[in-house]
Amino acid sequence: MLEPRKYQIEAVEAVIEASKRGVSRQLISLPTGTGKTIIFALLAKRLGVRTLILAHREELLQQARQKMLLVWGTKSPSCQPEANVGLLRRKETKGLLSEVCIASVQTAIQPKRLAALKSRSFGLLIIDEAHHATADSYYKIASELGFLTGDRGRSPLLVGVTATAYRGDKVALGNVFDEIVFERSTITMIRGGFLCDARGVSVETRVDLADIHTQAGDFVSSELARAVNIPERNALVAGTYAEQAQGRKAVVFCVNVQHSLDMATTFRERGINAEAVYGAMGMTERKSILDAYGRGSLNVVTNCNVLTEGWDAPETSAIFLARPTKSPVLYTQMIGRGLRIHPGKNDCLVVDFADIAGRHSLCGLSTLAGNPRVKVGKGELLTEAIERLEREDWEEDKQKIIVSAENREIDLFERSKYIWQAVGNNFRLPLTDGSSVWCKQTQEGYTAWAVDSSGTIKVLSEDVLPLGYAMGICEDFIRSLSVGRYSDKNAHWRKRPASSGQLEYLKKLGVMLDREITKGEASDLIDKVMSQPASEKQICCIKKHNLHTEPNLLTKTEASRLIAKYKHNNRMGEATA
User: What is the pTM of this model?
Assistant: First the structure.
C-alpha cells in the first residue's frame, strides 16, 4: 500500500470541499513529478463511485492503472486487487465492465464505445493531462457522458489534473473547468523539498530565429527544424554535454524526428552512448531504449514530443533544450522531466541554447520562477537566482530611507516577490480587500493560514513547514484569487509619489524621512509601524467576547479596531434598550 504525501491528501480534501460547494467541474494543478496520478487514484478510492479516467497516450494509461492498484493495495492471501480496474483501448474492452475504467481518448470517442460508456452512468470523470481537455474529442466525451450539463452542483464530478493549467494556443480551459481547487507552483514544491532545484547553463549560438513564423503560440516546427538542425549546432549540444554534464543522465528535447535522430548520431560520434525515441517508433523498440536508459547502460535519450508527458525517470539530472520554445506549457513539461527527487541527485542541470531570438520572446528558467526579472547565471541554482534578486531589491530598499521604526530582516533565501510583514514571530501578507495570509510560527516551523475580511479562518496547511515552503503555499493561494489583490513589489502604483495623506499619517506615527518617497515605500513604512502583533490584553478581550476565531493572527491595529467595533455596538445596544 502506497503512503501518500500530505499535499496529495490535501488535494483530495480540496476536491471534496469544492464539491460540497457545488463545484462539479474542477481542476488540480501540480508540477510534473509531484504525483498527480496518485491524487486521482486516492480520489476515486475515497468517493467509491463508478469512475472513468481519460488519457491520450499508452504510457499514461499504464501509469494510471499501476498507480491505481498501488493506492488500493491488494487483499491477502489471494492478492486480488481491491479495486476493479480495467483498461479500454482498441483491442481491450474489459474496462467497460470495471468500476474504474481507464480509457484512451481515441477509443472512447468511437460511437459504439461512447454509447457503451454512456450506459455505465459514471459518477466521476478524471482527465489526465487536462490542458488537452478543450480538444473536440475530450469535450464530446465529457458532454455525451453528462459532465458538461452546465447545471452547477447537479452534474456528476469532473476533475482534471495537469502540470500546466493553461494551453499554449490560448484556448481557455474555463470552457471545461469552473475552478482550480488545488494548486502548488514549481518553486513552492522545490522549496518544500518535493522537487529538486534547477541549475541553469546558457550556451550562445549563432542561429537566428528572427524570421521563423509562429503558429498556435509556438514556432512553426518545419521552419524551426531547418534553422536548428545543423551540424554545427548539434555538435555544440553534444560538446556541451561532454564539458558540463558528463556522467549525468540526460534527456535532449528536439524539434522533429530527424532532429532527434541526427542529434543522437552526433552524441555517438563524440563517444557518448545515446539513442533517439519518437512517436512513430514501435512500442517494443521504444521500451527497450527507455529500459536501457533506466538501467544506466544508456546515458542520453533524444526525443521529439514523446517524453514530455507520461514518462517517469527520476534519475534524469540534465535537461538539454536543443529546441527553443515560446510555449510556457511545453517549457514547463520539458523541465519537469528532470525535477523529480532521486537518491544521490542534488540538482537538475538545465542547458538552454540561446539562439538569436530577434522579435521572439523565448521561455527560460524565469518562466519556471513565474517572474521575468529572475535571470539565472551560469551554473546558478534557480532558488539562488531568486535569492540574489531579492537580496538586491532588499539592499536597494534599505538604502532609500532612514526611519525611526524598527526594521526586521528575515532570511533572504526564504523571501519572495511579495511584501511580507513581520508580526512578532509570524509573517503576514495583507491583501487589498482586508483579508490576509499568514505564516504562523510554531516550535518546529510554520503553518499556513488565510484570514478573510470577516475574520473567517482557512487553514492552508496544518503541517509544520519550513518558512519558504509555508510562504510558497500562501502565495499559491493568493495567485488563485482575483488579480491585483496582493502586495506585489513591482505594482505600478508603488512607483508614484506618496500622497499627502500618507505623509501626514507617517508624521503622526513618528516616522522621520530624509527624502521624498513613493506610494509603495510609504505604504511599507505604515505597515511596518502598524503591524505589531496584538497584545496579550487585546487577545484576552477578543477571546472573552468571541470576537475572532484566531486572535493570534491579528495585528495590534486590527485587534484595536475589532474591540472598538464591539464596544460601539454595545453602546448602541444600550442606548436603544
Answer: 0.67
